[in-house]
Amino acid sequence: SASASASASIIGVGSKAGEMTQVSVTTEDRVVGAKEMPKGLVDVNAQQIDLRKTNSWLLKIDQVETAEIAEVFAINTLAPFILNSKLLPLIKKSGSSPSQLRFIVNVSAMEGKFYRHKMPTHPHTNMAKAALNMMTRTCSADLYARHKILMNSVDTGWINDENPLQKAARIAESSGFQTPIDEIDAAARVLDPVFASLQPKPPTRPMMGKFYKDYHETEW
């Protein structure tokens, strides 16, 4: 019906991820969206271009809009939780026998570490990744004991400059700076707990309930 089509258009049904991030939810979204996040402009990863001079990475607690922190938690915490919980029945059925290893890798970041110096900026992204890590710490031992599922958190490594686009471009132009690794390196780190556990001579202790950075266990 016309009303159903209109409703779908409003909430972004059928839209790409980059477009859905621009759906206006609050008054602040409508003010910022048109000018600093132009519709149709995406980066190499098909994500919405952010032209704000002070982006999410630089915001302090009193500068983060409610919609923004909700989106950050939806992507980094709620979505992994829902996927893990709802796909668990399928994961349990996978493999040729109940004793076969199964894997869940929660893609985390250094922002989620407690044992690391913190700046006063981007508390919302720090909180979201810390919450993701807590899921790993809470669920991993039980999942392994019941279903031979190895759950870990993994840091992707530094693959993008978090500075605002204009500042990042100036730095790259003046110094030739680029992050030390790319998305392929990040994917290798994420998959390493899987590959390492499937080697002919796997680790003596199951690789589960850990936080990994650069292929090695790191503190929480």
Automatic annotation (TrEMBL):
Recorded GO CC terms: cytoplasm
Pfam families, sorted: adh_short_C2 (PF13561)
Database matches in InterPro entries: Fungal_SecMetab_SDRs, NAD(P)-bd_dom_sf, SDR_fam
Highest taxon in the source lineage: Eukaryota
Recorded GO MF terms: oxidoreductase activity
Entries under Gene3D superfamilies matching the protein: NAD(P)-binding Rossmann-like Domain (3.40.50.720)
Protein name: Oxidoreductase
Protein source organism: Lotharella globosa
